[in-house]
Amino acid sequence: MRSGDFESAWAVSDAVLRNLIRSGQVCWHLPRHQQFVWRGDRLAGNRVLVRCYHGLGDTIQFIRFAAPLRRIARDVTVWVQPELLPLVARARGVDRAIPLHEGVVEAEFDVDIELMEVPHALRTTLQTLPAHVPYLAPTRDTPPFNTARGRKIGIVWQSGDWDPRRSVPASLFKPLSALPGVSLFSLQRGPAKMQAALIGATDISTDDIEETAARMRRLDLILSVDTMVAHLAGALGCPTWTLLHADCDWRWMRNRSDTPWYPTMRLFRQRQYGDWDGVMAGVMATLQAGPVAQD
Fold first, then answer.
1. Cross-sheet strand order for the sheet of 182-186
2. 20 falls within a domain
């Protein structure tokens, strides 16, 4: 997957699936994100339940596969995190979206599959990866930020706790606020949002993800670590710069400053482990070079 050879990855996945079925293993005792849901059952012509058992960013990234899934399935129901329900319910290929909860799903279906298993089931390749953006959009709008002059940049510096290597010290964002014609707006959620004022950013964060999407569309650039906000910005088609640590997740592949997942996204990578100073120096130099450009 890191090298873009999806076909070979699916061959490995096929072998894992065969062994799983042969052994009769049951995965329901595992945490949701480690469960195997799809057992190779036919999707074409059936009512398919898509379970969203991974993180919010994963759901945002992979809900794009609802459209090609719906082209072969009779019906697609998505059991999705409540925070994402308004956005996912209107995504192409989704017949209905219902809020994820503990216990049994209240839906009729013939086959179920976890959302991140769908590209395997569809035999997606790098060439057939659904990459049209935007594929998510909020129904609401939000007033423009009239007090800001020049380039309005939304920033996120801290990711979830499960991989703290993705987070950048907030202090490294402060020099950006001193650039002529740049206004910083914090989209940071959680306790770390309290640092916004210390780095010269106006806090516009909210726990309402659809409202976050509306606010992001009023900005000129989203500058984020590898977290949900980066995926949301990419899905909305916003100009986005994503900051990656040296051993980043497989989905960002290797040695690329662009990504096939999001046409309006640019990647800034660590060249050495822990070197966020070098990454931010690259960001600073690119901002100083001129207007935000689409790759």
1. 201-203, 182-186, 151-156, 221-225, 240-244, 265-269
2. no
pLDDT number for residue 35: 85
| Per-residue model confidence as pLDDT tens digits over 141-158 | 998 887 666 899 999 999
**Do residues 64 and 159 share a domain?**
no
The string of pLDDT tens digits covering residues 8-62 is 999 999 999 999 888 887 777 788 888 889 999 999 999 999 999 999 999 999 9
| Residue closest to 136 by CA, chosen among 190, 94, 185 | 94
Q: Which residues pair with 185 in a beta bridge?
A: 154, 202
Regarding whether 88 and 164 lie in a shared domain, the answer is no
Query: Are 181 and 274 in a shared domain?
Result: yes
In a domain, 280, yes or no: yes
Instruction: Give Rg (Cα) of the chain.
Output: 20
Q: What is the span of the domain harbouring residue 231?
A: 151-289
Render pLDDT for 175-203 as a digit per residue (tens, 0 to 9).
999 999 899 999 999 999 999 999 999 99
